[in-house]
Amino acid sequence: MFRNLIKEAVLRTKKVGFRKSLNTLFFKNSSDHNESKIASPPDLSSDEIISEFAFPKEKSVLEDIESKYGTLSEFAKLFSSHKGNLIHKWHHYLNLYDRYFGSFKNKKNLKFLEIGVYKGGSLQMWREYFGNSATIFGIDIDSSCLQYNGLHGQVRIGSQDNKEFLESVVNEMGGIDIVIDDGSHQIKHIKDSLDILFPHLSNEGIYFIEDLHTSYWADFGGGYNSKNFFNSTVLDLIHDIHRWYHLHSLKINHISKNCSGIHIHDSILVLEKNKIFKPQHSQQF
Questions:
Q1: E-strand stretches of the chain
Q2: How confident is residue 54, by pLDDT bands cut at 50, 70 and 90?
């Protein structure tokens, strides 16, 4: 793995220098070896990385979250005590759920859509958090997920990049206040879902995309130097919401015209939707 290459390069540095040692390691089997350039590190696959982060089963999830992230959110407590359908979450996501979803907890007629049902455990957690009055739907391309239909929410089968299917689900729900994309994690699918669903999101709604570490993995359509989700869509949105201060045209107008906030966390992107007003400043004495 890359960090092993770096370690080897450091050991070789005293002999040939760090730049030369990196070049030799990255190009030692390549006919295009050029010692005047440092090669870009190779993109890793998901299988090479994901296993490194598994939490030991014999340890306390709740203690881990509290020791690292301070306050224990309601989602952290729900997840750590969860019994029932299988649920799989990264620990640092849980307090973020509270931060962004907390204001919706007591909202009447909340409409919550999750892309990706998996084993049905997350639908169970959303129901426990938002209560019985919330309209909760999950979509998945795997027809076996129909076994979870009606347990903690409604399940519909279809692809997250299918416009007709997605809009039929939104219409059945009567709108959407929160979308959480935990689907295929393929970069193209993430972008397609965002393009289709964000315009349907209610004002003050939240579009929450997780597991965006896949943007760096070739087997999900990503890569560090590729036109991945961060290097294209997110960067375009950042430029668009600062449109007042440059002369370039909007790149993603159907999203950015109502995108009031962009928040980036490790592997997570949160987009807020609201009315946009021209910024003004003043002085008070």
A1: 111-115, 135-140, 154-157, 176-181, 201-210, 259-265, 268-273
A2: confident
User: What are the counts of helices (DSSP H) followed by strands (DSSP E) for the chain?
Assistant: 11, 7
> First CA to last CA across the chain, in angstroms?
60
Which residues does 269 contact at the CB level (< 8 Å), separation at least 6?
Answer: 208, 209, 212, 229, 234, 262, 263
Q: Which residue has the tokens 């295929």?
A: 184
Give residue 109's pLDDT. 94
pLDDT of residue 48: 65
Q: What's the pLDDT tens digit per position in 4-19?
A: 434 444 444 444 443 3
Specify the CATH class of 105-273 in words. alpha beta
Structure tokens that stand for 238 in this block: 């950042």
Domain boundaries, the chain: 2-42, 105-273
User: Which DSSP category does 85 fall into?
Assistant: S
Looking at residue 22, what is its pLDDT?
A: 36
Neighbour order of strands in the sheet with 268-273: 154-157, 135-140, 111-115, 176-181, 201-210, 268-273, 259-265
- What pTM does this model have? 0.83
> How far apart, in whole angstroms, are the C-alpha atoms of residue 130 and residue 107?
9
Looking up tokens 């879902």, which residue turns up? 193
- Residue 24: CB partners within 8 Å, gap ≥ 6? 12, 16, 35
